[in-house]
Design goal:
Elements (H helix, E strand, L loop, with lengths): L1 H12 L22 H12 L6 H8 L4 E13 L2 E13 L10 E7 L15 E3 L2 E3 L24 E3 L2 E3 L23 E3 L2 E3 L21 E4 L13 E17 L2 E17 L6 E2 L12 H9 L9 E2 L1 H12 L2 H7 L1 H8 L3 E3 L5 H9 L2 H21 L9 H23 L10
Parallel strand pairs: 10-12, 13-14
Antiparallel strand pairs: 1-2, 2-3, 4-5, 6-7, 8-9, 11-12, 12-15
Helix pairs in contact: 4-10, 5-10, 6-9, 7-9
């Protein structure tokens, strides 16, 4: 039993047992016994072995120098390493000083150093009623007094729903709640439109009737074209769709759509008609043999009979004139589009505003309203671009702003280099 207790102490407390050349039982070296029972009891307690026979003890009492013990094993630690010896035979002197072991020693593993409550390996801090104290904490005992929420030692103030009350605070209990209208124990409450209910006289929120600001409507190019160019079309700028975003307002048992943004997207196409070649100018494909023809076609905006030269930049400039009509066109019809959108609603089933918005956008009327929005925008644009193609009008001005500098450069180069006279040059 003594041996087992010793091993248990080693494993729990990691107290190293020095195993020197004299063996595990050196601390019992040269023990002297006066009676046979003394020897027997010592061996029995030390090895926790009930199989010691009287004749073994007699050997020692009768002058034998050794005792042979079979099938014994022991486990011990050195530092935090755990070893085990497995011996088939051990020989001990009668005075209990062991002979050197003649058996194998096996490393079982390692036990980590214990950590105290302050996180210090092998530290001496420990848990007490007031927390971790001792060791490296700098706290050696728990204080006798407690401080209440008002900062009073051994005071009686305490934390309640309204804060620290009782004790020296002068507040014996929490005051009754006040609603958003300032009424004690009132039933008014905060809603998306403000404080309603109770004494406010407002039973439910009403949706705002502020129109969507037309100036907030925006447009941008880059939408994929859905209209193909005709055989004689140099370009086309076309309103493709109107994107609308909404919030939702709860009124009269329904969630109603409220327009928050309106954005038009249009496509812009430009090309040279089949049979035409891009004029690349001096250093490009302009030569003394073709420059006059190029100038003629450029100045005639490629409408001359048999024309074959033009520049794509002039076509783009033409279409950009039309594009300037798109934002004013959308601004002019925002009220019509808003009216269609804000006619949509879904019943209130206790859903969130986000869920209500999704439900509104899932209505068949939503896609219909957006289709109508694109048509309304297109109709307004057609009205605004009606005068763009007039002779000397906006598109002509835009094209010649691109053409004239190129013509001037070509003609100047032709004069400087004594190219043939061209009647189309200035």
């Amino acid at each position: 039993m003594i041996k087992r207790l010793l091993l248990l102490a080693l494993l729990i407390n990691l107290v190293p047992l020095v195993y020197d050349n004299q063996g595990l039982f050196v601390q019992a070296a040269h023990a002297q016994f006066g009676e046979e029972d003394d020897i027997y009891d010592f061996l029995d307690d030390w090895f926790d072995d009930d199989d010691f026979e009287d004749d073994v003890v007699d050997d020692c009492m009768n002058g034998s120098s050794v005792v042979i013990i079979n099938n014994t094993s022991s486990t011990y630690t050195v530092g935090n390493a755990i070893y085990q010896e497995n011996c088939t035979q051990r020989i001990y002197a009668c005075e209990m000083q062991s002979d050197p072991p003649d058996c194998s020693t096996t490393l079982i593993g390692y036990v980590p150093d214990p950590t105290d409550c302050a996180g210090v390996p092998n530290g001496s801090a420990y848990w007490a009623d007031c927390g971790c104290i001792g060791g490296s904490t700098g706290i050696y005992e728990c204080p006798d007094d407690e401080v209440d929420c008002a900062g009073v030692t051994n005071g009686s103030a305490y934390w309640a729903s309204c804060g620290c009350i009782g004790g020296t605070t002068g507040i014996s209990e929490c005051p009754p709640p006040v609603d958003c209208a300032g009424v004690t124990n009132g039933s008014a409450y905060w809603a998306p439109c403000g404080c309603i209910g109770g004494t406010t006289g407002i039973t439910e929120c009403a949706c705002p009737n502020t129109p969507f600001p037309a100036a907030n409507a925006t447009v941008a190019s880059g939408a994929p074209p859905t209209e193909a160019l005709g055989p004689d079309d140099w370009g086309l700028t076309y309103p493709e769709n109107v994107e609308v975003d909404i919030s939702a307002c709860l009124e009269g048992g329904s969630w109603k759509a409220i327009v928050t943004t309106m954005h038009g997207k249009y496509s812009l196409q430009a090309r040279l008609l089949p049979g035409f070649t891009q004029v690349t100018g001096i250093g490009g494909n302009t030569t003394d043999a073709n420059f006059c023809t190029q100038v003629e076609d450029l100045k005639g905006q490629a409408y001359n009979a048999g024309a074959t030269w033009f520049i794509i930049e002039a076509v783009v400039a033409h279409e950009n004139v039309h594009a300037t009509r798109f934002e004013p066109g959308l601004e002019a019809v925002t009220t019509t589009i808003e009216t269609d959108i804000e006619a949509l609603s879904v019943p209130n089933t206790g859903q969130t505003e986000a869920d209500a918005i999704s439900a509104i956008k899932a209505l068949p009327g939503w896609s219909t309203a957006l289709t109508n929005a694109q048509g309304t925008w297109l109709a307004q644009i057609l009205t605004l671009v009606a005068g763009d193609h007039a002779p000397g009008g906006p598109t002509d001005v835009a094209e010649f702003a691109i053409i004239n500098p190129l013509v001037a450069t070509i003609c100047s180069h032709a004069t400087t280099n004594s190219w043939p006279v061209c009647v189309h040059c200035p």
